[in-house]
């Protein structure tokens, strides 16, 4: 029985990897045209979103949190600074580091990019019920937290939702 369970788990794992890979490619393809129309790259968009959600950050934190190479983050931050979307100041507690903040221009660029990308997503998912999208978002957040090694809290109002809480030791 244990071997049979292991084979099922291997198949499920392969399927998760395959489906997430396909979803990533499809989502990138869907998001690229509206982001280009807003004058924002995928990497810039994710940096702007993170800065909007979290506030002040450092390049190292952005690199770690978004799982991006430091060189990629540095290049994107330089472009965002040149466009006036972010401002960098020297970190008073570590003069070798910079604190990065979203500017008003960055908020405007992000709002434009978000409006365009949400319109593309709404077009594709108009037949899905809002609750289905919320459940998908909750599960994806829990999945990503698990990949990061973080614990997820169950979705509000759904304390027994499977996959939203790390397994408890037996």
Automatic annotation (TrEMBL):
Residues in the signal sequence: none
All copies of domain HTH marR-type, residue ranges: 13-142
Top-rank lineage group of the source organism: Bacteria
UniProt entry keywords in alphabetical sequence: DNA-binding, Transcription, Transcription regulation
Record region (Disordered): 145-170
PANTHER family given in the database record: TRANSCRIPTIONAL REGULATOR, MARR, TRANSCRIPTIONAL REPRESSOR OF EMRAB OPERON
Protein name: HTH marR-type domain-containing protein
Organism: Yinghuangia aomiensis
């Amino acid at each position: 029985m244990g071997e049979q369970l292991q084979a099922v788990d291997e198949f499920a794992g392969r399927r998760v990897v395959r489906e997430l890979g396909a979803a990533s490619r499809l989502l990138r393809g869907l998001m690229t045209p509206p982001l280009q129309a807003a004058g924002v790259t995928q990497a810039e968009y994710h940096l702007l979103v993170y800065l909007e959600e979290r506030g002040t950050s450092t390049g190292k934190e952005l690199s770690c949190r978004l799982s991006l190479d430091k060189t990629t983050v540095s290049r994107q931050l330089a472009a965002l600074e040149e466009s006036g979307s972010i401002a960098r100041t020297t970190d008073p507690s570590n003069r070798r580091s910079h604190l990065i903040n979203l500017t008003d221009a960055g908020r405007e660029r992000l709002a434009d990019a978000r409006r365009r990308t949400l319109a593309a997503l709404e077009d594709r998912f108009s037949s899905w019920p809002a609750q289905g999208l919320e459940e998908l978002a909750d599960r994806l957040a829990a999945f990503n937290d698990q990949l990061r090694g973080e614990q997820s809290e169950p979705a509000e109002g759904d304390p027994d939702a499977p996959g939203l809480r790390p397994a408890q030791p037996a």
